[in-house]
Amino acid sequence: MALPHCPKCESEYTYEDGNLYVCPECAHEWSQDASADAEDALVIKDANGNPLADGDTVTVIKDLKIKGSSSVVKVGTKVKNIRLVEGDHDIDCKIPGIGAMGLKSEFVKKV
């Protein structure tokens, strides 16, 4: 029986510890019962189809107008340490020079 990949970092090097699975690469632990539900979990992907995770660094692929402001987030802006959330704007982040905002995953690519 093959062990499931880590749901947090997709590492294939997981191992069993009692009734838990453990990832040696990111130290994530999850129950064996939860692994069956992991496939039902929402997976957020960037514009190229790569899965995103909390803490990733992404690059903006299109000029984005900021609602309620005359500012624009330019193409190529690098955004570090993103946080994934549910909703229309599925990425929470802080953009240098602008501040905290939400982005849609379809307008970013993983670095």
TrEMBL record:
Coiled coil: none annotated. Residues 44-111 form the Protein YjdM C-terminal domain. Signal peptide: none annotated. Residues 3-31 form the Protein YjdM N-terminal domain. Belongs to the YjdM family. PANTHER family: PROTEIN YJDM (PTHR30305:SF3), PROTEIN YJDM-RELATED (PTHR30305). This is Protein YjdM.
